[in-house]
Design goal:
Blueprint: H1 6-19, H2 24-85, H3 88-107, H4 114-132, E1 135-137, E2 151-157, E3 167-172, E4 175-177, E5 180-183, E6 185-190
Parallel strand pairs: 2-6
Antiparallel strand pairs: 1-4, 3-6, 4-5
Length: 191
């Protein structure tokens, strides 16, 4: 073994102390000091991520709520239209009956006749029942404007009394069910 002189041994001891590994206590202190920075930044990160998740869930909830409100509105509208148009075929079949009853009433010479009164009462009752179900007569007055959405022009005639595009005669009444035209009003139009 070799013997080192005293001076060299002291230098080696000093170097060993400088290079010496930290003790367990020193390591724990450094760890805690380092964790202070992590502790401060980690909760802020967690809070931010939780806030983002909450915001995403709120947006998803709002979308679902809006979709459900639209669904309810659509189904309510569909139910109303189904109920309204369920009797459309029946009403289309009754329109010629209404025309025939009007013709029959026009043929009576004596409007005081009890038969006329009875037929007129049945006619009015039928129109009231159809009106309660949503069927309406399309308005077409002589001298009013022609509307191609509701009226069907079957004739044109020059007229000194009315300007062009005015109804001069109603040939056949038209009927609608809600916004739907069951039969357009047939009219003569001035040109």
């Amino acid at each position: 073994m070799y013997v080192l002189d005293k001076e060299k041994q002291e230098n080696i001891d000093e170097l060993e102390e400088e290079v010496k590994e930290p003790s367990q206590e020193e390591l724990k202190e450094e760890e805690l000091e380092g964790n202070d920075e992590n502790i401060d930044s980690e909760p802020a990160f967690k809070i931010k991520s939780l806030e983002n998740k909450l915001k995403e869930q709120e947006e998803a909830y709002m979308r679902i709520n809006a979709e459900y409100a639209n669904y309810r509105r659509r189904t309510t509208e569909e139910k109303a239209s189904i109920g309204l148009f369920a009797n459309e075929k029946l009403m289309n079949n009754l329109i010629p009956v209404i025309d025939n009853m009007e013709r029959a009433l026009d043929l009576f010479e004596n409007k005081e006749d009890p038969l006329y009164t009875g037929v007129e009462m049945v006619y009015k009752q039928m129109l009231d029942s159809l009106a309660q179900a949503g069927m309406k007569e399309i308005p077409a007055e002589i001298g009013s404007d022609f509307d191609h959405n509701m009226h069907m022009a079957i004739m044109q005639e020059a007229s000194e009394e009315y300007e062009a595009g005015k109804i001069t005669m109603v040939m056949q009444k038209g009927y609608s069910l809600g916004d739907k035209i069951l039969r357009a009003t047939m009219v003569k139009v001035s040109c």
